[in-house]
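Q: A reviewer asked whether we had any structural model of the full assembly, not just the individual parts. We don't, so I'm hoping you can provide one. Inputs are below.
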Amino acid sequence: MLELSGVTAGYGHFTALWEVTLRIAEGEAVAVVGPNGAGKTTLLRVVSGLIAPRSGRIIFEGEDLAGHPAHDIVAHGIAHVPEGRRLFPALTVADNLRMGAFLPAARSRYRESLERVYTLFPVLAERRGQRAGSMSGGEQQMLAIGRALMSQPKIILLDEPSLGLAPVMVLRVFDLIRRVREEGYTILVVEQNVRQVLRLVDRAYLLEVGRIKTEGRAAELAEQDFVRQAYLGV
Amino acid sequence: MDPIFLAEAAINGILLGGVLALLALGLNLIFGVLDIVWIAYVDLVMLCMYAVYFLSVVYGWPIWAAGLVSLAAGALLGVAVHLLIISPILTSAPINQLLATGGLLFFLQSAATFLWTTDHRSVRLSLPSFEIAGIFLPATRIIPFVISIVAVIALYVFLTRTYIGTAIRAVSQDREAMSLMGASPQRIYIVTSAVGGLMAGLAAALLVFQYSVHPFFGGQFGPLTFMICVLGGLGNMVGAFIASFIMSEVIAIGGVVISTEMGYVIAFVIFIVMMFVRPGGILAKRE
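A: Here is a predicted structure for the entire assembly that you could use as a starting point for your response.
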């Protein structure tokens, strides 16, 4: 469904990603794990068009989207839940969700999408009139995911969904992502919380200083000693 | 002093505040979305005032028709300013954007002087006045005020109830996130500039009721508009609306109690003091 080949990208003279190649099949949940500064966020930003790759191809459903602007890429069915959630803090929960369905195609199915999001995250229905910025971190993360679902995506990119959340909330958010998965969405998630995310996904890639070091089934990757030592602290 | 004069000044202040609010909201809307202050904003108003003047006085159009043309001209000018001046330098340093719109100000003033000389031109509408409890209310002030308030309400409805209006507010909070929602930033910028220009065009059509137009009209209202925006908190629409009335009251009452010039002096002094007390605007939370 989504295939990156030889993607190199960066900011100015700094190169954050070197020749990254990865592939996600439809219905799959894939994680990219790695330490801080490995280039995980850059990877998602390249896919969603927030930065253009210097070279390489980003094939989504047979079409090369490399270098397309972000607003065009979301129209192809790639929704990005960015690092730090990036909600519209002064808008209400309902207006944030409304903005998620900004695309004409999504707008025509607004009611249906909203129903779905409210079923998945009932707390959002309760808080619909509240300003997004006044909610707790966990609720904001739900809203960020719900807003992404409003665009009727085929694949969802999640950037550090557990960042800044209390441990109890981390478990809940992963549980919610599991439910989103069960809805049939394809998911690409980047995380530092390796232990949790490996339980959620089918496969994982290990990214280190901008290069893919290894890949494999989530269970196998968890067994590898170096992953344990580096990230699980065992 | 006869309290009736004070009451009349207070009412005149409110009436002036309506048109000032249009200018301040237009400028603030553009700032909120683009992070750029259009220094030449009131000079666009000046161009639209000339349009109203020529159409209604020289070509004999009815004032409402000339006003509608002013609205359209304002929107077109807004889009032109964005496409020709702002868009090419959107990613450059903020000081360059400020200088570019500042340059536009001098260009427009000089061009207007060249084309139409420095003569003050007035539309001279003959409209009735009303007297209520000894207070004198000219229609040339009441009509612009009423239309301004209707326009402010329309802008509020546009920004809160429509999809594109909500998107404009969203962009002012997080530009990048809105592009992830599928909104082309350039499209939002053009719509915002058109709406901001429309407000300028409307303000022009209302200002001709009371003021004559000349090439340096921008100098009369430009700094005041900018000051209101800063006082209300740059990008804060509610703050700008309230600040418009604070400033217009100070100018109107100060003008009657002391003198017209002192009214402006007091307004600017209050502004400077407020900058020390509340640099983020009147509605900002104190740090």
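A: Points you may want to mention in the reply: The longest strand of chain B covers residues 129-132. Chain B touches chain A at residues 163, 166-167, 169-170, 173-174, 176-185 (CB under 8 Å).
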